[in-house]
Amino acid sequence: MKPYRKTARYTGTLFLTAMAASLIGGSLLETMPENSSPIVLIAGVTLEIVNALAVLGVGLLLFPVLKTIHPGAAKSYLGLRLLESLACAAAPLSLAFGANISDLRIIFTGILIPLFFCSGALVLYWVLYKYHLLPRFISIWGFIGVTGIVVLNTFSIQTNLGMILAFPIILNEIFLGIWLITKGFKPKNQLYHVT
112-121: per-residue pLDDT in tens? Predict the structure, then answer.
């Protein structure tokens, strides 16, 4: 059995879950307060909580994999994923309890979530690249995608250009999720602990 095969499958599934829940939930919540339907609010908040749990799940699942190779990176990645998860959960919950949406958007979606996401992604892609756990083009693509998110949030771009800048990391995480489900990690001597 390939090393961490089940872990790779579960992690890939959570990457795809987080991406779908974030995109759909975020789209629903962006219609607030124009669309004041409680069903839309409940659906959006629920999907964002699913996203937050999936984000944390990815960090937890990858921790033992990364720890066998680089314990410091493993702890950093898990910590950043935990902070990202908390920020992802706090934003919709605060909205559900009547907080000002414009303030939330600035604090959570404009600062905290991108900060924790980008920092965690850089740690992950650095380890994947350095230790050849996946084909290196996936990590390079990830670095490019993170750069787009940094530019998007640094300059608060809200036009179609913003979606263009976010598109590489969206596609990368979808591809990464599918790759982990279908192929797993590349066999490395450090990873021959079967889970």
Answer: 999 999 999 9
